[in-house]
Design a protein that fits this description.
Layout lengths: L2 E7 L3 E8 L4 E8 L5 H18 L7 E8 L2 E3 L4 E4 L6 E3 L1 H9 L4 E5 H13 L5 E7 L3 E7 L2 E2 L13 E4 L2 E4 H5 L1 H11 L7 H9 L3 H25 L3 E5 L1 H4 L3 H13 L11 E3 L6 H22 L1
Parallel strand pairs: 1-4, 4-8, 9-14, 14-15
Antiparallel strand pairs: 1-2, 2-3, 5-6, 6-7, 9-10, 10-11, 12-13
Helix pairs in contact: 3-10, 5-7, 6-7, 7-9
Length: about 300
């Protein structure tokens, strides 16, 4: 059996897991992110991986490699984190630094949402279909896979959180009004400045609180604008939602479908039967990162033989 380590880096936490070639998580660790500086953030990543290695029965010499999901824009070829808006890295040489710190040769990086999307594509065995993976969490973003290959554009494709949508207060970027922190801020304001987390907002929605219903309905309207734009551009076979807001509140799916029907033409409505919430839970990022290690190792072997 072959093993790899998948790492999912975020602004609030870092998760890493030992993955086998079937995408099963054998063991995992999680630590809080320390975003004071680029170096403190990097040391958190190293600490998470070392903690996993120390507790695992698999020596690092037997690992196929490490896959790392990084938010924002990355240079996969050179292993550099180019631009991140929630961690203090800018043109940070992630791969070279990890090779130096861990003495492991095969290390690959990609955008964290792309890593999660890859796990979904492998899990659903979508072959030649066009799939869009959308994450709704502390941010909003997406990744597009067609026939097993990402549609990357010039390197920033899929950032639907940057799309301006119409609101009662004018045009605003989707992420600024519909991601988890924005929902929490809106709820805290509506409930007399009480600090309300997103999970509490949805709890009150289920309980029938009028303020919560208004906020959730507005959230659905804003999210639907972004999804409809993607659907009109790509006409995907399938849309899969991940991220904590979507995974822990599956009611979003039915509400979103109802809202999308208002704008969709009949020829577009086929996708309404192919919109799902991820069944991989919060492990998508580390699973996708780990599986990417195996696939890139195979490609490198074939290229060497060729």
């Amino acid at each position: 059996m072959n093993y790899s380590i998948g790492v999912d880096i975020g602004g609030t936490k870092i998760a890493c897991g030992l993955i086998n070639e079937y995408g099963n998580v054998i063991e995992q660790k999680m630590i809080p992110s320390e975003t004071t500086s680029a170096e403190t953030m990097f040391q958190c990543v190293v600490s998470c991986i070392e903690s996993l290695l120390n507790s695992s029965s698999i020596p690092k010499e037997q690992l196929t490699g490490i896959g790392v999901g990084v938010p924002g824009k990355v240079d996969r070829e050179n292993g550099v984190a180019i631009f991140q808006n929630n961690i203090p890295w800018a043109n940070f040489p992630v791969v070279d630094r990890l090779k130096e710190a861990l003495a492991i040769d095969h290390i690959v990086i990609d955008n964290d949402v792309y890593m999660a999307a890859y796990a979904e594509w492998k899990s659903n065995q979508l072959s030649d279909e066009l799939m869009v993976y959308v994450t709704v969490s502390t941010g909003i973003s997406s990744a597009i896979i067609h026939g097993g290959e990402f549609i990357r554009g010039a390197g920033f494709a899929g950032e639907i959180g940057l799309i301006p949508v119409c609101t009662t207060e004018g045009r605003q970027r989707l992420e600024k009004i519909a991601a988890g922190p924005a929902l929490s801020k809106q709820a805290s304001t509506s409930f007399s400045d009480e600090v309300i987390e997103t999970k509490t907002l949805f709890k009150r929605y289920y309980e029938g609180h009028s303020e919560a219903i208004i906020i959730v309905n507005q959230f659905i309207d804003h999210l639907a604008q972004g999804i409809y734009m993607i659907n009109s551009l790509l006409d995907p076979h399938r849309i899969i939602f991940g991220g904590s807001v979507a995974i822990y509140n599956p009611v979003i799916l039915d509400l979103l479908k109802e809202r999308l029907q208002i704008d969709m033409l009949e020829e577009q409505k086929h996708v309404l039967n192919q919109i799902y919430v991820s069944e991989l839970g919060s492990n998508q990022g580390i699973v996708g990162a780990g599986l990417t290690v195996f696939d890139t190792a195979i490609k490198q072997t074939l290229e060497t033989k060729g």
